[in-house]
Amino acid sequence: MRLKVELHREAVWFIRHRCSDAEVDAFYGHLEKIRTKPIANSEAVADPGLSRYMLRFFRFAHCIAIFQYRPAEDRIIVRQCRRIRPRRRRKPNDAPPGP
Amino acid sequence: MPTNSTKTTQKAKRRSARAVGDTRRPSRKRSSKRRPDDYAYVIEDGEPAYVLIPIEEYEDLAKASMVEQAVAQIKSGDEDLTDADELALELAAERIARARRAAGLTQKQLGAKLNLPQSQISRIERNPDRTTVRTLKRIARALGVDVQSLV
């Protein structure tokens, strides 16, 4: 069963204006997997800023797409796409103190 | 900020106004049976500009319009969503135009290279999915890019 996918305005803007062609291809590549097995190919995430319910996300290129899966309607709504924040590097314990 | 005394005066005024109007004010039931000819009109420049309606009917109308607005808002929320397949097609269409611009060519110049009219190039850029693979390959060759990067 191939699910219908819709994108929220913010996600459309990100895909259009912030993604390179390779990233767009990666997004649609992952979206195909999500369309067939949405739960198996994604992880759960809670983002109170977006929804008070649990959402799911998948990674593509250096970005993530947060989506809402509505099994009753066979529909996926991509709520937000954004870049993954680079991980903070911790200083090793034996590092000399800064200036 | 109105004081208590002014509030009471306003209330009293409203009550007295109602009391005057109450004697002939039609009930909710009666008003529903009214026909358009039964209402009083205010004429401006020979044309009816305002209609005098009972307050109950006005309140009903206001409520109805609020409900309509709320429904429209909910609907517009749904319209914020874009189908992923439609977006993919739009993005594919933009890719050809972007590649052409990156190559520093106008639609006319690209058409001249391929022996095609400018209108045909315009059509291809708008609907790349309705373009043959052969034409897409020719365009890719003329632009010096890979055909896969165009669609």
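Chain B has a mean pLDDT of 75.
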